[in-house]
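Hi Prof. W.,

I finally got the Sugar kinase prediction working! I wasn't sure whether to trim anything, so I left the full sequence exactly as given:
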Amino acid sequence: MSLLTVGSVAFDALETPFGKTDKIIGGAATYITLSASYFTKDNNLVAVVGDDFPQSMINDLNQHGINTEGLEIRQGEKTFFWSGKYHDDMNTRDTVEVQLNVMEHFDPIIPDAYQDCQYLMLGNTAPAIQQKVIERLTNRPKLIVLDTMNLWIDIANADLMNLLKLVDVLVVNDEEARQLTRQPSLVKAAAKIKEMGPQTVIIKKGEHGALLFQNDQVFFAPALPLAEVFDPTGAGDTFAGGFIGHLAKTDDISFDNMKRAIIYGSAMASFCVEKFGAERIMNLTDEEIKSRVDEFVKLSAFGL
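And this is what came out:
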């Protein structure tokens, strides 16, 4: 079924204990759509870039079957840019520089061909922009998944509260879940979030896996122990892309299938951290993905 992702396509400059890069392709929507491309072939993107964004990078997205009709190119403007430096433990990072550029006035335009999307992934942008997307769709998608972050919880809380009433699934990390609900317990935080609107809550715990909450059901997916984490940038978005990509492919939003989607998302995220930026998820094979998913199954399987 058709998937629409709205978010940022950007340039990143990264520094980790393993090295550094100049400008490379980044942005939430980039990671989401690339990850989802391994599952669904009806994969549509809405984002904005400046005229400094190379056609070769757009070609890379197209080669993955990503429809870029909704990628607006603004002449005379520059693409969103973020630079970050990771600490030795790779769990913390410092933002070195942010240039909003075209994202400062992002006004998402939904092409007619995208109007029938059945799955909508709202990548991390301002809640007011995310709500515009929902309002500009002629028909409500079968499933709306929202990603947000601590910045919007802090400075756009009222907008976020309104938006939460309109979505089906919220994806946040453990710190954001606690900040949003002021609950130290993630179980209580998930319950509080469900009162705000989304009836399915995914709480990411980085190297410690992810939790899925729906009704009175809970599922925990482990993270794959990796000897080296090269660059965690985009791992959360890659997770989200694998999750919603699997749901769009199977067109099944049952709790049992969401559990499988969590595993696929976790597998995709485990690839992402193995190289800088989106490099690793640019050239995966079906065999690699299947093998990695099997590792997750073995990791969590046991008998009594």
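The longest helix spans residues 255-272. Does that look reasonable to you?

Thanks,
D.
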